[in-house]
Design goal:
Layout (H helix, E strand, L loop, with lengths): L1 H33 L1 H16 L13 E8 L6 H8 L6 E9 L2 E10 L7 H35 L1 H7 L16 H55 L5 H33 L8 E3 H18 L3 E4 L6 E3 L2 H18 E13 L2 E10 L29 H11 L3 E6 L3 E9 L1
Parallel strand pairs: 5-7
Antiparallel strand pairs: 1-3, 2-3, 4-6, 7-8, 8-10, 9-10
Helix pairs in contact: 1-4, 6-7, 8-9, 9-10
Length: about 425
């Protein structure tokens, strides 16, 4: 705010200096121009004195003088002639000089010219232009200050407070519409962060309760396994049938413990990945255009050929933002694990569903690995030393299933294909 106030003060000072400079230069120039007639009048008078008589000059050769008239000494006795000679002519200023030849006055010569300094508009024109410009600029600056900068200055503290965990800070209502979407977004961010914080606390509590419950449940089969193992070690069971029963019991109890461990792992994944999908519909054309707007420039930058096939603009059921998230995961995987030569996106319809196929050239996943690609924390053998956590495709599958769709993979001769199935 202080910087903007200094800018406004600087603009006012600059305009005042400019105004003074323009008025000074304009006045000086007009004064010089208004006196240029004297040069022409003096030249004409010298010519007449040399000729020793009055001669009417050619007016088109003159720049400043508009008219020349002569009153001889004989005509001075005629009152009407004298009155006409000295009469005022609208828009002109008269300059009269005596015509003297051999120390004798032959008559009077009148030169009519336009005097710029006597024009009432010579100051008002530049002054008016400068004043209007100054008022316009100041109006814009003051408007920006009061209606844009000041409300934004008030909102600038909000992200900082949210980063510190102060979720109770309210966004003040502003009648201006410039920051309507921004204010709405900040308020939504605050609500989402607040909800996420509460959800995290709730999940943490549920997680601890689950771990306590599972640890208690695991103790029973674990103690039984320990007893069976101790009995086998000490030779309590004499017959082979009893030993076989003990082995079977240990195997059964181990299966129970494995189920508890899987439950813990599943609970951990659900805590990390929380997928929410809005039940809505969107047109395929809008979906494809958003894909193209983001990935065509990126593919050009990475020298990757992006081919998008022909499609019909169908109405698809699902959440467009979440569907774009799925495509984003697949495209980033194509950039990461593909060879960067080509990415193809094609479309087809099957049994009332819209299929979108994303194919990239590059390394291929083994056939036996494909069913596990969508498992949490699983990474294919082609991942190598590339960074990743094995959750991308798992999240894609969760999103597609929550939209009543599906996703599956297929190995090609020179790459991988992923199929997205959307209900229509």
């Amino acid at each position: 705010m202080k910087k903007l106030d200094k800018i406004i003060a600087g603009v006012i000072a600059s305009w005042l200096l400019l105004f003074a400079a323009v008025i000074f230069l304009w006045g000086r120039q007009s004064e010089e121009e208004s006196r240029e007639y004297l040069v022409e009048a003096g030249r004409l008078m010298r010519g007449m004195e040399e000729q020793k008589c009055f001669s009417m000059p050619v007016l088109r050769d003159l720049e400043k003088i508009e008219a020349v008239s002569y009153l001889s000494c004989q005509d001075m006795e005629d009152t009407l002639t004298v009155s006409v000679f000295f009469s005022h002519r609208n828009g002109y200023v008269a300059h009269i000089e005596p015509l003297v030849v051999d120390d004798e006055v032959l008559g009077l010569v009148r030169f009519d010219y336009r005097n710029i300094r006597e024009n009432k508009d010579f100051v008002s024109l530049p002054a008016g232009v400068l004043l209007i410009s100054l008022c316009s600029v100041l109006t814009v600056l003051v408007y920006i200050r009061n209606h844009i900068v000041r409300p934004f200055w008030t909102l600038s503290e909000m992200p900082y407070e949210l980063s510190r965990g102060h979720m109770r800070m309210e966004v003040e209502e502003n009648k201006e519409k410039f920051f309507g979407k921004f204010v709405w977004g900040i308020d939504m961010l605050r609500d989402n962060l607040n909800a996420a914080q509460k959800r995290a606390l709730k999940l943490e509590k549920e997680k601890k309760m689950l771990l306590l419950s599972l640890s208690h449940d695991i103790k029973t089969p674990l103690n039984s396994i320990k007893l069976y193992a101790k009995a086998l070690k000490e030779g309590v069971y004499e017959s082979e049938e009893e030993k076989w029963d003990a082995f079977c019991q240990i195997e059964c109890l181990s299966g129970e413990i494995e189920k508890y461990v899987q439950k813990i792992a599943r609970s951990s994944v659900e805590d990390i990945v929380s997928v929410e999908v809005e039940a809505s519909e969107f047109y395929l054309h809008g979906f494809v255009e958003r894909m193209k707007a983001y990935y065509e420039p990126k593919c050009r930058l990475m020298m990757t050929e992006l081919a998008i096939g022909v499609y019909e603009n169908r109405l698809i059921k699902g959440d467009m933002d979440r569907a774009l998230e799925v495509v984003e995961n697949l495209m980033e995987n194509a950039f990461k694990y593909g060879d960067g030569r080509q990415i193809d996106i094609s479309f087809q319809e099957e049994e009332g569903c819209q299929l979108i196929r994303l194919r990239n050239t590059g390394s291929v996943v083994n056939a036996e690995e494909i069913p596990r690609l969508f498992d949490s924390f699983y990474r294919g053998s082609n991942a190598g030393d590339k960074e990743g956590n094995g959750l991308g495709l798992y999240i894609c599958r969760e999103i597609m299933r929550k939209m009543d769709g599906e996703i599956f993979a297929q190995a090609e001769n020179d790459g991988m294909s992923f199929f997205l199935v959307f209900p229509m």
